[in-house]
Specification:
Layout lengths: L1 H11 L5 H77 L8 H11 L10 H8 L9 H8 L1 H30 L2 H10 L11 H4 L13 H4 L2 H38 L4
């Protein structure tokens, strides 16, 4: 192409056709500029296409992360519900209104009521987006605004979980260690596979029974203890609060998933 332009210019100059040569040169410049603009536009289209493709990858990864977090949280809510029911039944035991009145039955109730179940969300994809400033790729202001509140909401929720965890381990359990038989509670937890669903290892490797104690158990120690009653009241209060907060997080996750689904392009 450049050889053709040069030959044409050489034919024009000797014939003193300067004005035509000037027009031709201007036209040539325009063609070059037009070519550059086309190349820039192609680059922009290519970059745009790559950005949208990358955004789709992140959206799908983000969806999977939130789905996994939702599944985990639902599991923890259900397990806390069981703990809450057991704690309420123990209060009825203290009030003399429960059908669970034998040591083995109280052991099983305590085995379910005692564990603490915490929500440990995966944050890998979201942290990658925020740390690399790639949230802008998603190009959905509502989604970006919603995601921006996730970490602070989880921090607030974890504060409630941590306070209950501290209360459970530093107050409720020491009372039972001192006034009841913890071995029987633990063995009941193992026998009835209370926490099997959240174990990271094979239950067979950690669930060998330790047997029940041969020492006598006096249920009246618990039934007539205002301290035990108070501990149970706080357990019920804490678990109910945490599960209420969990429902708020579930609603949040559902709203995020709805926005993501609207942004994912069907293949």
């Amino acid at each position: 192409m450049s050889r053709l332009f040069n030959q044409f210019r050489r034919r024009l100059l000797p014939k003193n056709r300067f004005s035509k040569y000037l027009l031709y040169t201007i036209g040539e410049i325009i063609i070059v500029i037009f070519g550059i603009l086309i190349a820039l536009q192609v680059d922009a289209w290519t970059s745009e296409r790559e950005s949208r493709a990358e955004a789709q990858v992140f959206l799908k990864q983000l969806k999977n992360e939130f789905l996994a977090n939702r599944e985990q949280l639902v599991q923890k809510v259900l397990m806390r519900d069981k703990a809450l029911q057991s704690a309420r039944e123990l209060l009825r035991f203290v009030d003399g209104e429960s059908e669970y009145n034998t040591p083995s039955q109280v052991d099983s109730l305590l085995a379910v009521a005692l564990p603490v179940y915490t929500f440990d969300p995966s944050l890998g994809v979201l942290n990658q987006l925020t740390s690399t400033d790639k949230l802008t790729l998603l190009r959905n202001e509502k989604l970006n605004d919603t995601l921006s509140s996730w970490n602070s909401m989880i921090e607030d929720f974890k504060e409630d979980e941590d306070m209950y965890n501290s209360y459970n381990h530093n107050h409720f359990r020491p009372f039972l260690y001192k006034n009841y038989n913890a071995r029987n509670i633990i063995n009941s937890r193992i026998r009835y596979q209370v926490i099997n669903s959240i174990l990271l290892s094979s239950p067979e490797e950690v669930n060998d029974e330790i047997g029940f104690s041969g020492m006598p158990v006096d249920l009246d120690i618990l039934k007539n203890s205002v301290e035990f009653e108070n501990y149970l009241a706080f357990v019920v209060s804490w678990i109910a609060l945490i599960n209420t907060q969990s429902q708020g997080i579930l609603n949040y996750i559902d709203s995020v998933l709805e926005i993501i689904d609207n942004e994912i392009v069907a293949e």
